[in-house]
Amino acid sequence: MMAENLQAALRYAKAGYPVLPVYGLRGKTCTCPQGVACETPGKHPRGSCLCGSVAYVVEVTPFMARYCHCSRCRQARGAAHASNLVAHIDGVRFTRGADRVVTYKLPEARYFSQAFCRDCGSPMPRLDRGRNIAIVAMGTLDDDPGIRPSEHIWTESRAPWFEIADRLTQHPGPPPPS
Ligand SMILES: [Zn+2]
Ligand SMILES: [Zn+2]
Questions:
Q1: Residue 120 CA: which ligand is closest?
Q2: Gap between the Cα atoms of 29 and 32, Å rounded
């Protein structure tokens, strides 16, 4: 059984999917990218928009989560900052209403765009094919994703009325190259 799962994991690795620590080598058949190698079939964190037209699931262990205080994120989310979860693009899948998701690309930006439900305006996962990542607005998660934000970025653009009250690392500008 173990060998079988190991082979499955190797198959997925060869197909270009990252081999991930949390949803490791044990488990049953799952429709997620890790398939039979998935440790938690049917237990992936879900999210949805305000009106319910759009729903999605995060099927891989995210790379990271962080708060972004840049003015674009503040305007796009209408909030003090964005709370972004970043995962491999193949690990975030729309389960409902993908055709209701509209994307606005900021003309002058290299990457920045905002994906949202056309019916209610909730920010929905943005699938960035250029960088092979999905960016999930954590406020739209219905389940606990497990991961917690680890840092603040673009704090030099922080809203003057918002105070950072945690002890996470703060970067004045973009995240340092990883
Ligand atoms: Zn909606
Ligand atoms: Zn930002």
A1: 1
A2: 9
Distance CA 61, CA 91 (A): 8
pTM for the model stands at 0.81
Ligand nearest to the CA of 154: 2
Give the domain CATH number at 70. 2.170.150.70
Same domain, yes or no: 81 and 163:
yes
Q: Which amino acid is at 16?
A: G
Q: Which residues contact 139 (CB under 8 A, 6 or more apart)?
A: 77, 79, 83, 123
Rounded distance between C-alpha atoms, residue 6 and residue 67, angstroms: 36
Q: Could you list the mean pLDDT of each consecutive 10-residue stretch along the chain, which spans 178 residues?
A: 44 48 51 81 92 97 96 97 97 97 93 96 96 97 96 98 98 90
Q: Examine the domain organization and report whether 55 and 109 are in the same domain.
A: yes
- Cβ pair 155, 164 in contact under 8 A: yes
pLDDT of residue 2: 39
Q: Which ligand is nearest to the CA of 174?
A: 2
Cα 61 → chain centroid = 9
